[in-house]
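Checklist before submission:
- one chain only
- standard amino acids only
- sequence pasted in full

Submission:
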Amino acid sequence: MKFIDFFSGVGGFRRGMELAGHECVGFCEFDKFAVAGYTAMHLMTDDEREYISTLPKNKRVAEAGKEEYRHGEWYANDIRRIFAEDIPKADCWCFGFPCQDISIAGKQLGFDGARSSLFFRVIRLVQDLEEKDRPTYLFIENVKNLLSVNGGTDFLKLLIALDESGYDAEWQVINSADYIPQNRERVFIIGHLRGRSTTKVFPIERADRENSIPQIGNFMVTKKRSNPNQGRIYAVDGIAPCLNKMDGGRREPYIAQPVFCDMSEGAGVQQYEKAFCLQARYNKGVCNRRMEVSCVCVPVLTPDRAEKRQNGRRMKENGEPMFTLTGQDRHGILVSMSNGAEVYTVWHETYGWIAIRKLTPRECFRLQGWSDEYFDRAELVNSDSQLYKQAGNGVTVPVIYEIAKRMGVEK
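Returned file contents:
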């Protein structure tokens, strides 16, 4: 199918749809930083990215926003200022319309809010098209609370708007945790144009992993082999791989342990197998609400090295202090590192003082299903604060792919 990517962000819909074999013919996005990331990730050539890398970082967003880097692909920066006849003909319109007025973290104005009401702008564009030119599918995503905000009346309004535009709807709440280690429940809606699209997409069931061997990585990749027996890392669930004699060392299977912790103050060091739902404001740091923001715990002072601490300092081998404890109790301390940064720490009976480390922007992109190749392209033109925002605002690529491969133009 050919599809349009509305409210595109950095292109999670696009990547998932392309992996399923569909073709993007245009996108619409208001945020200039997201547009720069989208262009660098999906539209630029390698030579163009190489040129962008030679520019000062503060010049790259403006440069990436130039039309020449889109190579003729249709683009609009504001859905409120385009007309239906300007949009390329497509079989599917994809859009995760703004959720700020719907999310439980906001004021829950629903469709009375200025941002989430942009859903009806898309519907108006559909209605302005002749029926023969309307997309066969509307592929919609939003937060789970869309189903219940304002007592469910807003979701009813959405279904009525689709019906009046000639679309039958089906929907399902899918958790990204079925595909990647992030608890992220979102409702996905497929609008089928009556008389043209009849094949159901939902429900999508999670693959049965009862007898699987879930390998999740390899830390000994070589030039000749991308996945040698040595260095294979397996998830904690599923059955174990066949064990051999492990001659030569480093041939034993490695198991990934839970790595995510709660960044809220006083939460301790309970570990989780999956991250909490990523937020656009992830970089705000330590929060007060439990189980809202994920982090990684890193030992900074282990019990076996405690004797090396002098006057509140742990010393390097040459006697240089590594950090200073600026406050100490068994609920948490602030540690001043040698580079001047301060990190929040908590006490662990086995490991001693554990520093709370934020997820890096790269890790956040991974938790949305992006490969490092695509993150490197986004990082080329964006600051860390924008990358955090783009990861939190985006859709999970493997979820989009799982839905997209069930969609297609019926012959």
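Reviewer check: Residues 220 and 231 are 5 Å apart (CA to CA).
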